[in-house]
User: Fold these one by one.
Assistant:
Number 1:
Amino acid sequence: MTVDDGPQLDDPTALPEDTAAPRRRFRVARRRIRRCLTRWRPILLGLLVIATTGFAAGFFYFGYRPDQQTDDAAARDAIRAASEGTVALLSYSPDSLSRDFDNARWRLTDDYQAYYERFTEQIVAPAAQRGQITTSARVIRAAAAELRPDSAVVLVFISLKTTSKDQPEPVKTTSSVRVTLRKVNGSWLIAKLDSL
């Protein structure tokens, strides 16, 4: 008894029809993918170049540029603004109170300026006029504690010389303050002054 229904097992090239069709489909699909990759390869390469350029520009803008804005010159500017502002805020005389307060006012941010005006009108001016108090501040040392492109914190060590009607001889004291600065329209302004 012989069976001639299927292919001979001895013939290696003879494959059943149901396995030859998937192989043909696989070859056709592989050719399509190759053609597609051949077309898209230059586009993908161009996108890679654009992405790399974008990364480099982003690194410059967000990484390198802020470092330039917080270099030694920026630190010196912040320290100078904090020192001059502290002297202006803490130095006054009963004969020139309004001029002294105006000199200090333009060195302050809007929020701190409102606080400073209330404080000087309600406390400092009446006490200075009543007791004929004169204070003179001088910066001993100052250093930047924090520095960012738009804000800074500066530690200022000051020497205060105070005279009054009751104490005509100058009383010298030293103090340290922490000055918080904000950069507004390219200028460092005092946003807060805390005694340490």
Number 2:
Amino acid sequence: MSLPIAMGWRHLLFANWPVEPEIVAARLPDDLEVETYDGRAWLSVVPYLNVDVRPRGVPAAAGVDLPELNLRTYVSRDGEPGVYFFSLDAEGMLGVLGARLFHRLPYYYADVEISGTERGIAFASERRHPGAAPAEFVGTYAPVGDAFKPEPGSLAAFLTEHYRYYTTARDGTLRYADIDHEPWTLRAATAEIERNTLFEANGFDAPAGTPVCYYSRGVDIASSRNRRWE
């Protein structure tokens, strides 16, 4: 069983690194194709705060808030583009177990903190999930410059404007869900990343170079049921 859900995503950082497509393809299920921009695949680390998480149709006041961190890339199946999650780390064991059970997503329980500071948004995550590879992220990020809507065909749009996610269930089947939200409003961002082992935890080499970073105050989203690809 899968439940359609609603929530808000707040104070997001999109920290994005270019990667050779064959490196990403080697970590994907056979059913998915790597999406590229100017010949390069991308891996993105996205920390943020979930707010008012609840089943669709339930009042927002009944929802829960929890910080979250994911590592993702960009894929397509039969021409349908989307995001593929390698891992999602979140606060709250019950929420993690629910996401694994009802949405078949690779969630891991972690100690996660997000707070505002004079330097921007401070975010720290350390995975505590039993039997899982260790993963840690510590950093501070802040918006700079004016707000903008990503232009169609731009790198910013490629890295943010996706309305479907794909995941692989434990039985190896490909599943997906559609996401509805307003187009992103972004700003360029600075990010001081002190620690990031998400790449290694998911079988990639540590990222090299300075990431391309964007910040968003957030959007409200509604997700369909997670369905098996037939």
Number 3:
Amino acid sequence: MRKKTIALLIISILLLTSSKFNLSAGEPFLYPAVVSTVHGDKWGYINDGGTFSIEPKYDFIREFNQRGIAIAAYGEQEYGLCKVFLINKSGETVSGPFSAYMPEFRNGMAILTTDQNGSVAVNENGEEVLQSNYRLCEYSDGMFSFYDSKTEKYGFVDIAGKVAVSADYTSVGNFDAGTAIVETDSGVYSVIDRRGKVVKNLKYYDRYNSSEGLTSFYEPQTGLYGYKRTDGTISLRPAYISAQPFSSGCAIVGLAGKDGVSFGLIDRYGKYVMKPEFSGIVYLEQGMYAAAKQEYPYFPLAYSLKALFNSKGEQLTDYRFYNITLFEDGHAVANDNASTFFIDREGNTDKSLPELRGIGNIKRMGNLLQVSLDGGLQYLKPDGESVWKKDDSTPLGNGITVKRVTCRKDHLTLIHYPQLSGLADMAAENKINQKLRDEFTSDYLNRKPEAEDFAQDISIDFSAAINKNLLIIEKYGYFYPLGAAHGTPSREYFHIDSGTGVFYQLKDLFLPRGKYASKLTSMVREQLVLDNRCSALSGESGYFTTDAEVLEEPDFLLGSDAIKIYYQPYEIASYAFGFPEFEIPYGRLSDIINTGGALWNSFDKVIVRHKVKVQQDIEKSDVKTLEGLIASYETGIVDAINQNSFKIVEACLLKGSSLYNSQKNLVSDLYNKNTGEKLINYEIYSIERDYVSGIYRIFVNEEIAVKYSGKNYVNRKYSWCYTAVPQKDGSLKLDSIAKW
């Protein structure tokens, strides 16, 4: 028996060491690192020496786990659908690819939500352990919580994917030591076991506000909060206008004051550990707190200077930190007005570790320090020696490179501006760089410090691209007056001739007497009317006006096939609209474009007369699929009517849907009435997506020639909105139709 056991152990070890799933013991630590390319940032992994061990080719990556497995992905957006892989430290694919949202490892599992709303669970070795048609949520203690879209409830499946607790709950917590807390429709919380049997009911509980056996509650008569035990008895009577969950035996509470809310720290008996005299308190773990004075009570806490306090309520430092991270192993990372450094539990700067210019975070990782300051990334040895730093230069093409220059004035003002190199004409290069630097920085760097109560957070950045000889620099920013409900974004484009250094204006695109402003105004107003019709059908709010004007020098962007006219927030629509955009294809402006002008000839273009308006965040592949679906439907429905063959168009439609049934009847009805049709033309005006349901809306304008029995063809125009529903096989089917 002993020999058999040893033999099995040896076999297991051999399998592990020879497999792609081997553990990472003894393997080198690898660190996420990024390079800038003409196609965007690409991520890979470097070793302790700062050399890439896995070449930078991914769009998004996660850190390696303790088993030597990392998650990497290709995609347009980190939080959108991606092509996801699990890789080992040799860069080999262990699992995948999956068409899914990019996950993280939690409690030993990575749960991938797929493009078909199912899930795949992968363990820390990168092994696929479960595929489920349900949307798995969390894993713990051998159980997965899941969401049933049919019942809109939550339940649990076991590690084999078998439903252990049916989806009967409006919310569920994680299993721990064989039990979990669940919530029913009526708001009752219960503790259940792995079979769903109720162990006990909790008379008072809230999954967001319960901790350490206490839950805050609101008393309508007084408008104040107190705390109850899970058996429903009162632990602390209502006395506070806000009451946060307990952590390590203490809770942060708020009291009404003449200048707003004053915050303090209480123990489980309601005794003040820190008196209610602060504009905010943050728990930093390990018995440490940061608190801000009441000087500017309406400022968000992140913008207020804070002091460090211990669990006894003793103040350890002056008010000199704008931010302090959570304590870990007796240290935290802090920021002052313009630098980042380590502090100990007494609030002293740790001089044995680097103190760096810039605002951000320093993270211990492997044998190095990962430094993320002012949008940059680098790795240092603990003594401050640089191992690797991201190159802030990006090749644009034509031998031209743009460098991202960082300018940090103080904790409120961060500016990144472009610096170009590699232009053929050095004088033009210097001219461009000086003007760009002034455009990005002059309004902010030379400005006198604002009074604290009028301060604002200012961040400015850019993107750059080149089309033939036309450089396009996008300047974008965000301006947040401290204490306001939200800030204001800004956007501006610079169109620059890389040969001459000329900064073009929109008028340079048109003939001198082309009256381009009035023509663009008319075309923008056409779209405003159509957009408002789309919004009315979608249930969205429309624009403030349909009489928007295009000025002689409007905000604009020259694309490869159209001019984009855009407006700043609040100009013609609510803040939620962002920057309303209207694209005018060059093919509709051919009579007024100066085709012999320097601007027109500085970039490559495609002449089209129509562009589909696509809602942001819809992937190009989905747009292509939808365009193909509509094309098949438009030709198919006409052929189906003329041939009395519903099968011709049936594949485009969701079986059993309202559109399926109505078109099936329409085909036979029109054929029996001897009615014929010809498709003259159709255009997709816009494509939208409802991100809650996943359903697409396609707004189409159609022109159909209709021939009634015994009569000639008559052209008819229609505006239809079709909805398309994603299917489990990845296809899309049309399921409804409405006039718009």
Number 4:
Amino acid sequence: MTRMNGKVAFITGAGGGQGAAEAELFAREGASLVLSDVDASRVAAIAAKVEKAGARAIWCKQDVTIEADWVSAVEKAQQTFGALHVLVNNAGTISRQGIANTELANWNRTLDVNLTGAMLGMKHCAPAMRDAGGGAIINVSSTAGLGAHYDAAYTASKWGLRGLTKSASVEFVEWNIRVNSIHPGQIVDTSFYREGSPGHAESGRLSVPMQRQGTPLECAQLVLFLASDEASYITGAEIAIDGGYSAAGGLWLRNRLRDTLAASSPHP
């Protein structure tokens, strides 16, 4: 595969889940990789894995909320590869608190990681991408950025990222940089399901019209498309990858409950 031959891609949150899937897929398609994560051991393992498969990769421990970490990472990328063409703002966190019980520190941390981190990434990567002739930025938002979610800070941050993507797509068009957001729904192997109660996965599946959860690889395939020249006329877009969840809203689950109740009710 050669869709990313000659391209250098920076992927945050690459230590697992969607970020790791993106790293492995981009590597198979010929990209050189800059991988970062707050967990050094996990991202180092992913970098070693893609290198063993034949890709060029460097890694760094990075807190996306710290501007100096971005400066250092971009400098390392340019020193190693001489250019930067793709940024995937994949790093994120979830707080699991509603408005009434939100702690300010939790609120601030969630917005710092999910929104400010992406802004800092674009601020420091876009000039390098401009100097390389242009490129693509993919911001990983959520279906929570298209509707509502019980986690207030998470929802606000993902709506903010959606708006930030729109703004960046207009600002960076003169630099030949495309900026789009993807909005995953129920995806297996994410922190939401790893850390949630055992019932989260099943209740999530039942709310999806396709009646299954998506995979990190399916998200990675969408990110790869948006990063590639195949998406050369797409910018400022927001693309749901959710098995129909955002299209159906609560209607699907409501109809399923109605049908279930009707089937279980005694007939006259």
